[in-house]
């Protein structure tokens, strides 16, 4: 019954938000209460899961969101995004969504998806008019979503990719050899298909943007416009102004790579922590702006950044509460009992089954990494007897784990609020793009199975 009740809770939350215009925080909390009571957690257990889920998510991403938003405000104050967008518009023009998807997937793979979205969202909002005045932001939003998660599941050192490979005893080098081209192809093909859907009338400005942040013409207001531009800092070389983004990414990647190589260094471990790395980026941005703006000027910039942080934190935390209640309901164990890998199944059936297990687990639980890890745990005991190269099963799980990221994911709500989308807008971008990506990558995994069998 956990599956039925979880389905009811998720659908009810979506219906309340989209059809009846109930605030997402209220809708998600109602879904949490219903699900907790319906699955036998009791009043006390339900409250405990709601509060602990909120707290766990805040411990995981609260500082990342805060530091990321403030870095974005300071970067805007230096004119960083506008200058970067001008350069990108000259060099890639309308192909920026492809460049963003590919870069997020393979150049800056998703070590931490939360870091990527808080750093990429401001640039997507500012560059949207240069890409397409009508569909620029939704196209970039879809490209961001599939780029981030293609890297997360297919490209080492993405955390889901590392976890899947580890559970199935696949060497990371082997996983990267197959996963990197699949991740890149998935990101680019999905971005192209998503553009076709937008051209066929998928998007509606009146329902798909957050109406609290739109202008009279129906376009989203760029809240960074509230941030005063600091003239002195804006004259710094663009490479210097990008350091608040580049330095944290290098620190995080260095820490992750050394960790994979089992090299221990306390300084690198400290600086490679995502929270510390972003704080370093914030300090760099602060000291770049301070000489030109002074104490009062920096204060005004940071105040503008704080303006949007509260809503993002609250909605993200409540999304984490729903995920915690679903997990506490025993959903993962119920789904695990429904699936049993057949050792004598043909190769294609084994691949499809691995994909399906991961897709269902992710859809139900709301976490790409948890869905992938749980699926790998279900299959790993018999992976050696399936007659399929373990790397192919690992890639199948990665493909399925992207399917349909939606309202039971805290990332969904971060994505929604950072890009000024409505719930329906995020379902049309993030949910649709990740679903397309899961489907697009499946035949690529089948091709990889043929290559693996021939080598």
UniProtKB/TrEMBL annotation:
GO cellular component term of the entry, any: plasma membrane
Coiled-coil residue spans: none
Keyword Signal found: no
Residues spanning the membrane: 25-45, 57-78, 98-124, 175-198, 242-261, 267-289, 310-331, 351-379, 391-413, 433-454
MF-aspect GO terms: gluconate transmembrane transporter activity
Keyword vocabulary terms for this entry: Membrane, Transmembrane, Transmembrane helix
InterPro entries in alphabetical order: Glcn_transporter (IPR003474)
Pfam (any one): GntP_permease
Protein name in the entry: H+/gluconate symporter-like permease
Lineage: Bacteria, Bacillati, Actinomycetota, Actinomycetes, Propionibacteriales
């Amino acid at each position: 019954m956990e599956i039925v009740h979880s389905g009811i809770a998720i659908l009810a939350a979506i219906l309340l938000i989209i059809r009846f215009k109930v605030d997402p925080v209220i809708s998600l909390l109602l879904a949490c209460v219903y699900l907790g009571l319906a699955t036998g957690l009791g009043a006390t257990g339900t409250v405990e899961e709601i509060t602990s889920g909120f707290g766990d998510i805040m411990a995981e991403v609260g500082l990342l969101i805060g530091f990321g938003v403030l870095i974005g405000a300071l970067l805007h104050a230096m004119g960083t995004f506008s200058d970067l967008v001008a350069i990108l518009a000259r060099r890639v023009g309308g192909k920026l969504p492809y460049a963003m998807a590919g870069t997020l997937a393979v150049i800056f793979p998703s070590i931490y998806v939360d870091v990527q979205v808080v750093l990429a969202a401001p640039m997507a909002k500012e560059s949207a008019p240069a890409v397409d005045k009508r569909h620029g932001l939704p196209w970039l939003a879809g490209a961001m979503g599939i780029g981030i998660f293609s890297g997360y599941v297919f490209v080492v050192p993405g955390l889901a990719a590392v976890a899947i490979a580890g559970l199935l005893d696949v060497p990371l080098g082997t996983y990267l050899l197959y996963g990197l081209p699949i991740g890149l192809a998935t990101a680019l093909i999905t971005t192209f298909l998503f553009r076709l859907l937008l051209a066929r009338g998928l998007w509606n400005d009146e329902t798909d943007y957050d109406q609290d942040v739109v202008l009279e013409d129906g376009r989203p207001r760029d809240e960074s416009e509230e941030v005063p531009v600091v003239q002195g800092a804006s004259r710094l070389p663009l490479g210097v102004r990008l350091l608040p983004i580049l330095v944290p990414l290098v620190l995080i990647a260095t820490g992750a790579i050394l960790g994979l190589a089992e090299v221990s260094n306390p300084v690198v471990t400290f600086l490679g922590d995502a929270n510390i790395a972003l704080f370093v980026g914030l300090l760099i941005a602060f000291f770049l702006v301070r000489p030109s703006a002074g104490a009062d000027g920096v204060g005004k910039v940071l105040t503008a950044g704080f303006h949007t942080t509260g809503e993002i934190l609250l909605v993200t935390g409540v999304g984490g509460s729903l995920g915690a209640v679903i997990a506490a309901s025993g959903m993962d164990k119920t789904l695990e009992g429904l699936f049993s890998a057949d050792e004598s199944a043909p190769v294609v059936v084994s691949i499809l089954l691995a994909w399906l297990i991961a897709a269902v687990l992710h859809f139900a639980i709301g976490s790409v990494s948890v869905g992938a890890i749980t699926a790998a745990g279900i299959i790993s005991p018999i992976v050696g007897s399936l007659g399929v190269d373990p790397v192919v099963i690992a890639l199948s799980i990665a493909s399925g784990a992207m399917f349909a990221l939606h309202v039971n994911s805290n990332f969904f709500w971060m994505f929604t609020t950072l890009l000024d989308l409505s719930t329906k807008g995020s379902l049309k971008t993030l949910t649709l793009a990740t679903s397309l990506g899961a489907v697009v990558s499946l035949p690529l995994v089948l091709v990889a199975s043929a290559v693996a069998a021939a080598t």
